[in-house]
Design goal:
mainly alpha; elongated
């Protein structure tokens, strides 16, 4: 509603919001995918706890999740454009996973 009230329904602004929304959703999908992969690696590690390759893969996946979460945090910075939209999208995602 605020988009209409404040006259923000202009092509350039609309496209910028859409692009940011896609970036955030892509980041969220990467996290979801990494979490699923990590769960599978953890299962394999329970069967082969000394497998250095699996340990290395697990560490890389965990670091990827950390990096993507940091990216989501940056989108929400109050000084970034459309940070309120970013906060809403990220909050929905966090409710899903916790």
């Amino acid at each position: 509603e605020s988009i209409r009230v404040y006259g923000l329904w202009r092509p350039g602004l609309t496209q910028a919001r859409r692009d940011l929304c896609h970036q955030i959703r892509d980041c969220i999908e990467e996290i979801k995918s990494d979490r699923n992969l990590l769960n599978n690696i953890i299962i394999l590690l329970s069967q082969m706890p000394d497998n250095d390759i699996l340990l290395h893969i697990r560490n890389n996946i965990e670091q990827g999740i950390v990096n993507h979460m940091a990216e989501l945090s940056r989108f929400q910075n109050d000084h970034k454009p459309y940070s309120e939209m970013a906060k809403q999208l990220v909050a929905r995602f966090l409710q899903e996973i916790y």
